[in-house]
Design goal:
It is a single chain. Helix 1 packs across helix 2. This protein is 59% helix and 0% strand. The chain is an all-alpha fold.
Length: 111
């Protein structure tokens, strides 16, 4: 998954205009922070920076570290349709039986 490049102003406009990739990535970052999923202090600092400023002002080294976090958490696919799981759903992926939101909803309806 590619990290979107945005500022906080871009994020605010995206929320208004429906540019969901920024919002999804912001949800992902907030989820990592709120769930205390990152042990490394430098990586927690990068996530805090992204939460406050977006990704556009990251240094190359910070962006590289953020890419490693995304590789660890953000590269899942639905076990039924193989669609890539969006950033805002990836932290709940295991709890959702490794399914995209559509297929999870379908499976829950069938129960």
């Amino acid at each position: 998954m590619e990290i979107p490049e945005y500022t906080i102003n871009d994020l605010k406009m995206a929320e208004r205009d429906g540019e969901f990739i920024y919002v999804e990535f912001d949800d992902f970052v907030n989820g990592l922070i709120n769930r205390d999923m990152i042990d490394d202090a430098a990586e927690r600092g990068i996530l805090a920076f992204v939460k406050e400023n977006g990704t556009a002002k990251l240094s190359p080294k910070q962006k590289y570290r953020l890419e490693k976090i995304v590789e660890e958490y953000g590269t899942e696919s639905c076990t039924i349709c193989s669609d890539e799981i969006p950033f805002n759903e990836v932290l709940d992926f295991d709890e959702n039986d490794r399914l995209c939101s559509y297929h999870k909803h379908q499976m829950d309806k069938d129960d």
